[in-house]
Amino acid sequence: MMNKGELIERVAEEASISKADASRYLGALLETVSSELKKGEEIQITGFGKFYVRERAEGRQKPPDG
């Protein structure tokens, strides 16, 4: 699994930009997606996927071991 740092590195390489710029762009993208989802909006990026919030039934929680 790729972590955020590795993703930033890869974006920087693919786009021939600095890691600092890649970090800013990724941060802006994630903030925008998060903000829109919080407003109940859906985001579709053709050829990539669709982001949306799905309501789930409340699950049972396991009590902590004590």
Care to describe what's here?
With 66 residues, the protein is mainly alpha-helical. The chain has one domain. Helix content is 48%, strand content 9%. The chain contains 2 helices and 2 strands; from the N terminus they run ααββ. It has helices at residues 4-15, 19-38; strands at 43-45, 49-51. The protein has a two-stranded antiparallel ribbon with strand order 1-2. Strand 1 and strand 2 form a beta hairpin. The longest helix is centred in the middle third of the chain and has 20 residues, at 19-38.
Mean pLDDT: 93
Strand percentage lies at: 5-15%
Sheet with most strands: strand arrangement: 1-2
Helix share, percent: 40-55%
Question: What does the main sheet amount to?
Answer: 2 strands, antiparallel
Shape: extended
